[in-house]
Design brief:
Layout (H helix, E strand, L loop, with lengths): L2 E9 L5 E8 L4 E5 L6 H16 L7 H9 L8 H22 L3 H4 L8 E9 L2 H13 L4 E6 L21 E2 L4 E4 L1 H19 L4 E5 L6 H11 L6 E3 L9 H8 L4 E3 L10 H5 L5 E2 L8 H14 L3 E2 L9 H13 L6 E2 L11 E2 L2 E4 L2 E4 L8 E2 L1 H5 L6 E2 L2 E4 L4 E2 L2
Parallel strand pairs: 4-5, 4-13, 5-8, 7-19, 8-9, 9-10, 10-11, 11-12
Antiparallel strand pairs: 1-2, 2-3, 4-16, 6-18, 14-17, 15-16, 19-20
Helix pairs in contact: 1-3, 2-3, 5-6, 6-7, 7-8
The structure holds 2-keto-3-deoxygluconate and magnesium ion.
Length: 402
């Protein structure tokens, strides 16, 4: 089964998506998500200029070999752009394999370990009361796990908070805009938010929170300790974990579970975090972390150290990635939770999907392969619009992690 040609489809139904479509001489095609928020065109160029010419003529059945051709075979390897491209190739090849064999992806991964994948929703608000009302709305929709983010008093902007009535969307049209940040105000506010959330909704609801890389290790240790009485399901990205050893400090001060990895792209970003059991959940998604082929290895490695998955699933990861993630979530033993931010309705004008939500969980139907398709004519109605993620600056003017 030879690869004959490929297309990179860039569209913007509300937000940008990059989709790789790989065609074979058997009439079967596969889709992969190549979206890298704010850096879409870099991945398009990497695919078109470097990967697709080298894919033509290869046997689409040999996924492992193709993966290593693009990873091990590249002298200058790793990094988010190269790995987003490789992840899309890998997802498209697994999609082709499933379609060629007439079976859903989860079946190729060992079958189902569970019927539904527990998800967490995003509740947010400009302040504490709005955020708590949002928690209530998601709880009423049956969500068992809810991430809570709220605007910090006297800080003009806060990540993770919905603007207007749609889904949370941090990328804005044009070049990166700046947002303000203040660590002391945040550290005073966050424990109060979760105290109130527990008082309002009780102990059963699973509560999550994303720090978005904003703290130094000792500040993160303080927050994790202050949040301990409220029994979070997880505290995400308390520090920018480029320095994996920094998590030793956080860990030694608190039993609040830690989730890290949405910006990682290979197993090598995690080795210390996993082998020293410095995290509880790993978030590297299929579409940025080398696809099914690499995530199978990372998830298996993590399972040996009792680390579970909690894949990134924000709206900047396309329906192709979300569907593939659900297959993976249903199949592996050490699944923990899946992030689920509903795509805007307009996204369904371009993508047809195979997943459904019920009672706090997601599942997929038995459509062969990943089970998502793209309508190229409709995609063409929504041309690419340049958009960028924000940049953060502390109130004293210091440029900070966004
Ligand atoms: O592209 C960046 C977003 O995906 C990110 O800001 C969302 O932190 C995020 C999350 O946990 O979903
Ligand atoms: Mg996050």
């Amino acid at each position: 089964m030879r690869i004959t040609h490929a297309k990179v489809i860039v569209c913007c139904p509300g937000r940008n998506f990059v989709t790789l479509k790989l065609f074979t001489d058997q009439g079967v095609y596969g889709l992969g998500d190549a979206t890298l928020n704010g850096r879409e065109k870099a991945v398009v160029a990497y695919l078109e200029e470097h990967c697709i010419p080298a894919l033509i003529g290869r046997d689409a059945r040999n996924i492992e070999d193709i993966w290593h051709y693009f990873y091990r075979g590249a002298y200058f390897r790793r990094g988010p752009v190269a790995l987003a491209a490789l992840s899309a190739i890998d997802l498209a090849l697994w999609d082709i394999k499933g379609k060629a064999l007439g079976t859903p992806l989860y079946n190729l991964l060992g079958g189902k370990s569970r019927q539904t994948a527990l998800v967490y929703a995003h509740a947010s608000g400009k302040g504490m009361s709005e955020a708590l009302e949002s928690v209530g709305r998601f709880r009423d929709l049956g969500y068992k796990a809810i991430r809570v983010q709220a605007g910090v008093p006297d800080v003009p902007d806060t990540y993770g908070v919905v603007q207007g009535s749609g889904a949370y969307e941090p990328a804005k049209r044009g070049i990166a805009h700046e947002e303000a940040w203040d660590t002391p105000k945040y550290l005073r506010f966050a424990p109060k938010l979760f105290q109130k959330a527990r008082e309002t909704y009780g102990d059963e609801l699973l509560l999550l929170h994303d720090v978005h890389h904003r703290l130094t290790p000792i500040e993160a240790a303080r927050l994790a300790q202050d949040l301990e009485p409220f029994r979070l399901f997880w505290l995400e990205d308390p520090v920018a974990a480029e320095l994996q050893e920094s998590l030793r400090l956080v860990r030694s001060h608190s039993t609040t579970p830690i989730a890290i990895g949405e910006v990682f792209n290979t197993a090598f970003d995690f080795t210390t975090l996993i082998t020293e059991q410095l995290i509880d959940y790993m978030r590297m998604p299929l579409c940025h972390g080398g696809g099914i082929t690499h995530l199978q290895k990372v998830a298996a490695f993590a399972s040996l150290y009792h680390v579970q998955t909690g894949f990134h699933g924000a709206t900047d990861l396309s329906p192709v990635n979300l569907a593939a993630s659900i297959h993976f979530d249903l199949a592996i033993n050490n699944f923990g939770i899946q992030e689920y931010m509903l795509h805007a309705d307009i996204v369904r004008d371009v993508f047809t999907t195979n997943y459904s939500y019920a009672d706090g969980g997601l599942t997929v139907d038995d459509t062969p392969g990943i089970g998502v398709d793209i309508d190229e004519d409709r995609a063409a109605k929504y041309p690419y619009q340049m958009a960028s993620l924000p940049v953060a600056r502390k109130l004293d003017g210091t440029l900070w992690n966004w």
